[in-house]
Write a structure and sequence with these properties.
Layout: H1 16-44, H2 49-72, E1 81-83, H3 85-93, H4 99-118, H5 121-128, H6 131-144, H7 146-153, H8 162-182, H9 185-189, H10 191-206, H11 234-261, H12 269-290, E2 295-297, H13 301-308, H14 315-326, H15 330-336, H16 341-367, H17 374-391, H18 395-400, H19 406-409, H20 412-427, H21 429-437
Antiparallel strand pairs: 1-2
Helix pairs in contact: 1-2, 1-10, 1-14, 1-16, 2-12, 2-14, 3-11, 4-11, 4-12, 6-16, 6-17, 6-20, 7-16, 8-10, 8-16, 10-16, 11-12, 11-13, 11-20, 17-20
Length: 438
């Protein structure tokens, strides 16, 4: 348990000034994730500028609503909610299908998540994810998104030579990590926003012709993406379901982590998990119905609490409301969705590096306690290699896979997750149990 004295505890009401300043920090932190993921997904589906603006608006509104519901009815903790990288891997694998296929699967999986949260299944699901499985799965997320990073940075539609883009991205990433290391408090918490702003300016200077505009180039009907026409694609549903189970475990870790940092009584944890994962399920159903990427609670919230020494959940109400208001300003949204893809790619790498660091921390903490063996290395190593193999299959090989199962077989994250589960709980199960009884 983290020993620290906070200026405000979880259930403390805060003064108006604190509500505004802390709310601004939470808004910037959460909105930065929304902007990054909105840009990535809009690119996946080759959205027009107007469609990209509408997508970002929907994602901002749903994220704002989710933050408010989690604070009032869900886990009731100061935790950021935002688009899920795990679900992004499923969305990438489902791009051969109409967007409604992914959305339909997300609605169904959100409903399944509610059932899991409200029954004894939540405990059983959590038991399947041993520290070795969790560490491996967290490693698979950034690994299987590498083709997405590369596509964003090396986007041929963006001005500039390929060599210049790669050098620009490398230098920017080193600068981001240096700033993240040295900055504190407000500046560190809002780093991604400043990278979005000044990185875009730098890209505009380095690559003349980079488009930055307040004009979305048209508009999209307000009902677009809100009246879902279901498309039941079994392969997409299975792919999203496997990813969603991993998302639930991610949610468990985030809620527990924030609760521990915020000094919440251990007796309250079970109720927080049940309520929090229920709200996550509801919001993912809403996300699917609105045609946007689903979300999850972020473990990054713990760092925000420690930096500000403010563990009150109430400033997040202001943050949720602010995101909903921001969504009603199309010119601003229009500007942020024109951020160069090289900037988006660099920030996605920054986010996923933090994910990988957490994964390595879990594996080192567990495997470094004298429990490591050759077979344990096989469980981790094979799962990572099979995920990498499936993620980097040649286009001809992917095209040869029947479309109905392509979202599963061509999804490196799903392949790696299934592999680590089979090895951990089936192939090496007997030997581990004998070893524990020896």
């Amino acid at each position: 348990m983290v020993q620290m004295s906070f200026r405000y505890n979880v259930n403390d009401r805060v003064p108006v000034k604190e509500m505004a300043t802390s709310g601004l920090m939470w808004t910037i932190c959460s909105a930065a994730f929304v902007i990054i993921f909105a840009n990535v997904v809009a690119g996946l589906y080759n959205a027009t500028p107007a469609e990209a603006v509408w997508y970002a608006q929907k994602l901002l509104v749903i994220t704002g609503i989710a933050v408010i519901l989690q604070v009032i009815f869900g886990h009731r903790l100061p935790a950021v909610y935002g688009p899920s990288a795990i679900l992004l891997t499923a969305a990438v694998a489902a791009t051969d299908f109409a967007p409604a296929a992914f959305s339909t699967a997300l609605v169904l999986c959100g409903a399944a998540g509610i059932v899991i949260a409200r029954t004894g299944l939540l405990t059983r699901v959590a038991k399947l994810f041993t520290p070795r499985v969790i560490g491996t799965v967290l490693t698979l997320i950034p690994l299987t998104l590498v083709p997405t990073f590369a596509g964003l940075i090396a986007n041929p539609d963006q001005p500039g030579s390929m060599a210049a883009k790669l050098i620009f991205a490398f230098v920017l990433l080193i600068l981001i990590f240096a700033l993240n290391h040295h900055l504190k408090g407000f500046w560190r918490a809002t780093l991604m926003l400043w990278v979005l702003v000044f990185g875009t300016i730098a890209a505009f200077v380095c690559f003349p012709g980079t488009a930055v505009s307040f004009d979305a180039g048209g508009s999209v009907p307000l009902t677009e993406g809100l009246l879902l026409t279901p498309i039941a694609a079994p392969g997409v549903i299975l792919s999203v379901f496997i990813c969603y189970i991993a998302l639930i475990v991610n949610d468990i870790g985030s809620i527990r982590g924030v609760g521990e940092v915020a000094k919440v009584q251990a007796a309250e944890t079970e109720g927080q998990l049940r309520r929090g994962i229920t709200v996550t399920g509801i919001m993912n159903m809403l996300s699917g119905g609105a045609g946007v990427l689903g979300g999850v609670n972020y473990s990054i919230s713990s760092g925000m609490i420690l930096d500000t020494k403010n563990a009150s959940r109430y400033p997040l109400l202001a943050a949720g409301a602010a995101m909903i208001v921001c969504a009603a300003v199309p010119p601003v949204i229009s500007l942020i969705i024109t951020i160069p893809t090289v900037i988006t790619g660099c920030l996605l790498i920054f986010i996923m590096t933090s994910q990988l660091s957490a994964a390595l921390g879990v594996l080192i903490e567990h495997e470094g306690s004298g429990m490591f063996s050759f077979n344990n290395g096989v469980v981790i190593g094979f799962s990572i290699l099979i995920a990498a193999t499936f993620s980097f299959l040649p286009e001809a090989a992917v095209a040869a896979v029947p479309a109905v199962v392509r979202p599963v077989l061509a999804n490196g994250f799903v392949a790696g997750t299934v592999a680590v589960m089979l090895l951990e709980h089936v192939v090496f199960r007997e030997k581990k149990e004998r070893g524990s009884n020896a």
